[in-house]
Amino acid sequence: MKAGRLAPQRGFTLIELAVVIAVVGLLLGSLMVPLATQVEARQIGEARRILQDAREALNGFAIANGRLPCPASSVSNGVESPVGGGVCTNAHDGFLPAATLGIMPTDQEGFAIDSWGNRIRYAVTNANASAFTTANGMSTQHLTAPPSPDLQVCSTGIGISSGKCAAGKAITAIAVAVVFSLGPNGLAGGTSPDEAANQSNERVFVSRLAGPSSTGGDFDDIVDWLSPHILYNRLVAAGKLP
Questions:
Q1: What is the mean pLDDT of residues 43-51?
Q2: What is the value of pTM for the model shown?
Q3: What is d(CA 240, CA 131) in angstroms, rounded to the nearest whole number?
Q4: Which of 26, 77, 132, 156 has the highest local Cβ count within 10 Å?
């Protein structure tokens, strides 16, 4: 009896292998885009949380010290400048003083950072002879008239002039302090009119939805600010204001 002959084995041809590799590549590529989007969305959410925590830390500092901290300078290692407040060294273009506030996360030099590792910016009003950053300055000012914070947040950087938003573009004109992240593009940004406004030494800032704009240009900064009414409410509740 003759042994049965084995059927010949047919393998993949080079063309078939190339097709399989191409299909797998397309599938992996389609997965990578949503994954990158999810990662960035998580980073944006984390940055917003960090800014909210920073705002609460500022309120707590004001309750404990009767004033807001000055921003940190680029060489103060996360400590407010000057120490003890008063007339701030960088009132409108400084950094969140993480060392003074005792908050995290920070970089190795003590500056508060966002979820991309970039330093968080912080500006504070110097209105009323720097009453908001001078010890007991707010309570002293309230004896005559409530102090008038003057930081402005605009919906666009177009038309900003003399420290004011363009007509009809002010989201608020009475912010006490502004804290913000430079967003995913970090220091590489700041070239569009809207982002450039946030990196100037002015009391005017921009906050809007991320994305391109026909006039304001690309924008991905994440901006938060402190309302004077919330600050006063916290200080009154703590017995720090009449």
A1: 96
A2: 0.84
A3: 14
A4: 132
